[in-house]
Structure formats: structure tokens, C-alpha cells
Amino acid sequence: MEHNHITLPEGSIEKTTTTLNIGPTHPATHGVFQNIMEVDGERIVSSDQTVGYIHRAFEKLAERRPLYQITPITDRLNYCSSPINNMGWHITCEKFLQIETPKRVDYLRVIIMELARISDHLICNSIVGVDTGAYTGFLYVMQYRELIYEIYEEICGSRLTTNIGRIGGFERNFTNTAFTKLEKFLNEYPKVLKEFESLFTRNRIFMERTQGTGGISAARAMNYGFTGPNLRAAGVDYDVRVHQPYSSYQDFNFTVPVGTTGDNYDRFLVRNAEMWESISIIRQAYEKVQAFKGAEAEVYHADVPEYYLPKKEDVYTKMEALIWHFKIIMGEIDLPKGQIYCPVEGGNGELGFYLISDGGRTPFRLHFRRPCFIYYQAYPELIKGGMLSDAVVTMSSLNLIAGELDA
Amino acid sequence: MSLNNEMIQEKLIAKFGDQVSNFATSYGMLSFESPKEINLKVLQFLYDEPNLKFTFLTDICAVNYPDQKGAELVVVYHLHNLKENIRVRYSVSTSLENTDVYTATKLFESANWMERETYDFFGINFVGHPNLKRILNVDEMDYFPLRKEFPLEDQTRIDKDDEMFGRG
Amino acid sequence: MRPVRFNIHPKEAEIADAIGMGKAPDGVPGDGFFATQLSSVVGLARKNSLWPLPFATSCCGIEFMATMASHYDLSRFGSERVGFSPRQCDLLMVMGTIAKKMAPVLRQVYIQMAEPRWVIAVGACASSGGIFDTYSVLQGIDQVIPVDVYVPGCPPRPEAIIDGFMKIQDLVGQESIRRRNSEQYKALLNSYGIQ
User: Fold this and answer.
1) Residue A374 has pLDDT above 80, yes or no
2) What's the rounded Cα separation, in Å, for the pair B67 and A218?
3) Chains touching chain B, criterion 3+ CB pairs below 8 Å
4) Most C CBs within 10 Å: which of A21, A25, A126, as the mutation test of the C interface?
5) Is the Cβ of A53 closer than 8 Å to some Cβ of chain B?
6) Which of A240, C128, C155, C173 could be C63's S-S partner, Cβ–Cβ 3.0 to 4.6 Å?
7) Within a domain: residue C135?
């Protein structure tokens, strides 16, 4: 009997590997990334990435805006933890303009930033769960992310892209409802996190899927510019909150969890451990906030009329306030000359703001150091030689946020 | 013995003499410049020198100063010594006519995409880069959008009335 | 051992107005039959079993995740199955900024979808470019594909996304069966250079 072989046309090269395209719109990429992989069976031989599918020209846009109008742009960098970006930008501005913020503002900021870190890690870890086949964790913890969003809503009126705070502090004081909601979160969330952990951490399937996949050594990770939980999972205890404390992080007692192998499992564990630390930091900050008495307990912004919008009642009744209101809204305040680089510990790494001012009203140049843009280059090295299905898990455990990556 | 800005400055001057210049400290961070030809030597020195060990590249970006004739484009490196926890800012400038700058990809893997981004935005030609092509914008783009001479908005769009947006 | 007892005082759930069946279309009911227009029946079936294709690129996609997850639960509206294959889906939900680099991809996905297909633009960016009036962002997806419903917001709350989804359901329910063959519809697609 004759076999019908497919005969290749004359001159064609016989390839032993297959080219596989994943993305830019693909459920496994969780964002708009394109990966073109050479696979031998299910093993990845090499891969190449394309990014830039939602490049929005943040840096050019920022050159046109006064400082306070840049906050909404930072929201849209890493939108899973936008309050950290907002605060990071405000802290950069305050350092640049040499504004001292009151301690209470710092502590309130810490509460918000740690809530944001929890919501960021929560999404990342539950998505790792989804990619290893456990949808339950995701559906379960998403319910509790809503609690965090409710707290944001109580403070600034928005859920996701928060635009929270102003240069110098917050736009309004935290209400009692906000604190009640915070207490509710602090009471309920640890149980949920515990359950979430017991669902995954010693789960045989999960361990088999994540241990030993997507690993990177500490030296390579540093060479690739890893920061944040991904670097800590590789065993380097670099955390901007400790190394270069901002917003009074030096007043808090917390540990920096580190992993050893830098694989997907370690990244998962480090994020989980960080959530526990965040809860403890929030508790400490909440205690410190409660300890303020009298007039101090009402402070929610620094006294910087040049940059902090006056109260609406004052605008209608006081000349001084009206002038400041006008000047701020019209963006008519000249900035000092100078350059500053200010990093904060974002949800997925060191988020830096490099601000150059030439004395104009808008930044001359503003560059964002976006952590996931920098560490996504390591992806081909992380997945090389591994299975295709592990590449998907590696991608989600890196916590790549397309909006931040493409700026 | 902890490292401080003065020590870094002394070491750099001892090695490169007057080729490194414009030392300044702003907001606690030391910044300095050098001619673009020796950028790799300076980076390598900062990387290898036992007491300096700036082995972490935080960031590369560029800035366009249209008024500085002959040095319109400035490439800025932010380096970090994680152990001593100290950062420096190092910059080299280049003219618009000849935008060649040596690549740092041999030293830092992370420089790869940062340099591609800088090329994409400012058109700086990193000599020796393994894969220097646009990263964020479409390949067909024929200008470098972050240079000051180019406008922010897309000039071909017809649906937005500039006068209504205060740009008439 | 506790005796097994049935609840002899059952409490009626107060669901008189809260939960209802889908309303039957106008028609003639009779013994064992119900006569109505074919398009109404098809519309009723289609609108309650839409398969969305989430084309989520940025922030709005995260709000869509919340919409899909347990708290807001989009599956109550008959779209339990979120498909990622354009061939199988009826509703393209575009959430997030579409850059010029992404525009051809979006168009390709739209072309791959089978008729009848609907499009919902979620959020300011998808509707008009939003705050990103820049060289790299498409100023609204209606420049490359036709859109049925726009949802405003940056990002819209999950309730707003659900509201937009219900607007689509209304459109789907009332669509005549031959609309996709009409000259007007062909002219619309031609104006986008599709087909």
C-alpha cells in the first residue's frame, strides 16, 4: 500500500521546529503581548517578543501638563495598584519642591499603598492559579478585592484609576466609614488569604506546575534589571521601602520576604508573604493614625498653597484662596529648575520617576522607570527549554501589566 | 566603610582626569558627564572597580535640549550600587547629526530594551546593539516622536477640532 | 438523635418582582402552541445567550474582570461563556486603549467574527481615545470597525458595563432577521472597507 506523504516543494527547507505565534490578543497573555516561539514538540527552543500594542505616549503627554494633571496619567501605568503610582508621583513632586508632609499624611498614604499592594499581588497570584487550572481561587479572592475598592471609593470616589491624593496630602480627610471599612477588611481578609494559601501552597498539582519552572538566578536577575517581588524571589532582599524609605516607611516594622530559586513557585510565595506583611503594616499604620489626638487628628495635607487646592468655601469668600485656586487650575505656577529621580516600591518593582524641569510650568521631561518593561526582556531566557504550558504560567507570575510596560 | 558621593567623584577623577566633568549633587544624587566616546569605559569602570561596583542599571533614557547646539540629545544612565545603596546619574551628550553612542548591552542585559526605547523615542543610534529597531511604535514610523520639534497629537486626525481643545 | 423534620412553616421568598422570566414576545397563545414572528423568537434566544469576546487591553479590562467575577457576575445575563475565539463569539467587547499598532489586529478579529456580530466600546479610550490624544493612539475604535454601544467612563464601573451589555441585549432582541442582508448594512460595512 502506498503512503501519501506530503511532498515539500522543490527547494524548501525542512524545519524540525514549529513556529508558534501567541498574541497579541490571546487569553493566556493577560494583556497585549506577542510571543513568537520556536517549539520542538512542546519544548520551547527560542522565542521573541513584540510589545508596544498599547503605547500611549505618557512621557510626551506629561510634557504638556502641570504637575497635578500628571497624576491621572500615573493611574494608568500599573492599573492594578494605581494608588502606589499616584503616591509615588506625589512623593516625587514633594521631594522636588521640598515640601514636608505631616506624619499623619504619611501614615494614611502607607495604608493606601499597602492596600494597593495587596490588590496587586492578589490579582497576580490568583491569575497564576487560573493558569495552572484553579479558577476557584480567582473567583474567591476577587470578592475580597471589592472590599479594597470600596475603601478607595470611600476616600476618593473612584475604584480602579483612583487619582487619589494631591501634592501635599489628600483631597479630603478619611471618613469614619472609610475606617470602618478598613477594619472590616482587616478582620475578614486574613482568613481569606489563609484559605487561599491552603488552596495553593501545598497543593500537589500547583507545586508540580510551578516548582522549577521559569527560574532565574540572582545574578542574572540583577543583570536583567529585575526589581520587586521577582528579584526578591531570586534571593536578593532589595526593597525600596527599606533601602530608600519614603512616606515614613522607616517607622514600620516589617520583614522583606525572599525566595531562593526565583521560579514561579517562589514568586508566588514571596507575593503571598508580602501580603501578610502588608496586612501587618496596615495594622501598624492604622494604630499610629488612631493615636493622633486633637487638632493633629484632623491633619490631612501639608500647608502648601502653591500646589494644594484651597477649600471651595474659601475660594468663594477669600481673595487669597481664589488667587491660588486660579493659579493652580490654570497651571500658572513656575517650577524650580532641577532634576530628580525618585523611586517607590510599586506593585511589581521599583517604579521610578525621573523629572527634569527647566523652570517652566510643566516638566521639561518626565521619564517613568517602569519595572515590568525592564524585566520582560528576560522572558525568553526564563522559558527557554521549558514546556509551552509552563511559559504561560511564567508569564502570569511575572506580573506583567501591559499598560505599564508600554507606557 | 561606606561609599559616598565625594569618594565616587575622587575615584572617577583619578581614573579619567578632566574627561569626566560637571559633577553636581542634587537631591542627594551625584551626577556627572563625560564625552560620549568613553561612555563604555566609564560604565565598565563603575561596574568593575572593587569599591564602586555599580552593577545594577536602573534606567536609561534620553532628553532632547533643542537649544544646546551640538549637544541636543543627552543619554542619561541611572546606576545603582545595591550593596552600598547609593545611586549615580551619568550622562553623555550627542549632536543631532551624529547620534552614535556605544551600547551598554554587553555590560547589562537590561540595557537592551531600554536602548531600543531610547532609539524609538529619540533616534539615538546605539553602536553595537544586537537588535536596534523600534520597540513601542510601529515600524513604519518615520520620525522620533519624543524630540521636542514633533507635536504630541497626531497631525492627520480629522475628528478632533483643535479650536475646541484650546489649540487653535 | 435529632428527629428529622420538614419545615412546616415555609417562608415565601419575596421574589414577586425581583426575579422574572424573560417576557414572551407579542403573539397568539393557544393550546399547546404559540404563534409569533420568527424574528422575535430568534431575538429572544440570541439576546439571552450572547457569547462575549473580551478584547481587553488595559484598565477597563481589569474592571471587566470584576464584572465577570463573582461580585457582579455577568453570567446572570446569559453570557457565562466568555470565549476567546472570534469564530465562536457574537459580541466583541473592546475594553481599553487601542493603539495604532493594535488597530489592524482589532480589525482582523472583527472580520473573523461570524455574522450576526455586535460591538461594544467600553471606556473613554475605546470610544474616543480618551485622555490620550497622542500620536500613537487610535482616536476611537469606530475609525476601524462599526460600534453598536458606547460605554462612557475611565474606566466605567462594572454596573456601567452591565448597563451597556443590557443595551446590547435590547438591540439584539429587536433586530430583524434580515437586517444583515440589507443595503444599508452593506453600505455601513463598505464604508469601513470590510467585505
Assistant:
1) yes
2) 43
3) A, C
4) A25
5) no
6) C155
7) yes
Instruction: Say yes or no to pLDDT of C8 above 80.
Output: no
Per-residue model confidence (pLDDT) at position A5: 66
**Start-to-end C-alpha separation, chain B:** 60
Three-point CA angle A231, A257, B1, nearest 5°: 75
Rounded Cα–Cα distance for residues C165 and C161 (Å): 6
**Nearest to residue A176, comparing CAs of A289, A281, A17?**
A289
d(CA A365, CA C14): 61
Neighbours of C11 (CB within 10 A): 6
Contact status of A145 with chain C (Cβ, < 8 Å) = yes
CB contact under 8 A, A56 and C137: yes
- Residues 4-23 on C with a CB inside 8 Å of A are none
The reply to whether C20 falls in a domain is no
Model ipTM value = 0.93
pLDDT for res A336: 93
Q: Looking at chain C from residue 23 to 62, which residues have their Cβ under 8 Å from any Cβ of chain A? A: 55, 57-59, 61-62
Q: Which of C101, C134, C140 sits opposite B138 (nearest CB)?
A: C101
Question: For residue C74, what are the domain limits?
Answer: 50-160+180-195
| Residue C7 lies inside a defined structural domain of this protein | no
Interface check for A220 against chain B (CB to CB < 8 A): the answer is: yes
Integer Cα distance of B22 and B6 in angstroms: 13
Which secondary-structure segment (H or E) carries C95? strand C91-95
* Rounded Cα gap, residues A407 and A399, in angstroms: 16
A100: distance to nearest CA of chain B, Å?
14
CA distance C179 to chain B (A): 29
CA angle C74, C78, C83 (to 5 degrees): 75
Residue C89 belongs to domain with CATH number? 3.40.50.12280
Residues 75-104 of A with CB under 8 A from C: 75-76, 79-80
B136 and A407 within 8 Å at the Cβ level: the answer is: yes
pLDDT at C81: 83
For chain C, percent helix, then strand, then coil, each to nearest 5? 35, 15, 50
Q: Closest partner residue to A142 among C66, C135, C137, by Cβ? A: C66
> Is the residue at C9 inside a domain?
no
How many Cβ atoms are within 10 Å of C179's Cβ, its own excluded?
Answer: 13
Question: What residue has cell string 540595557?
Answer: B111
pLDDT of amino acid C69? 84
The answer to whether the CB atoms of B153 and C134 lie below 8 A apart is yes
CA–CA gap between residue A233 and residue A397 (Å, rounded):
11
Query: Cβ contacts (< 8 Å) between A406 and chain C: which residues?
Result: 99
What is the number of structural domains in chain C? Answer: 1
Q: Which residue, among C135, C139, C147, would best test binding to B if mutated, counting the most B CBs under 10 Å from its CB?
A: C135
User: Does C6 have pLDDT greater than 80?
Assistant: no
Contacts of C67 (CB under 8 A, 6+ apart): C74, C158, C161, C162
Positions of chain B with pLDDT lower than 50, given as ranges: none
Q: How does residue C176 score in pLDDT terms, banded at 50, 70 and 90?
A: confident
d(CA A390, CA C85): 22
Asked if residue A288 lies in contact with residue A108, where contact means CB atoms within 8 angstroms, the answer is no
Average pLDDT score, chain A: 91
Query: DSSP readout, B25-87?
Result: EETTEEEEEE-GGGHHHHHHHHHHSTTT---EEEEEEEEE-TTSTT--EEEEEEEEETTTTEE
Q: Which residue has the cell 493652580?
A: A328
E strand or H helix that includes residue A206 = helix A204-210
- Any CB–CB contact under 8 A between C134 and chain B? yes
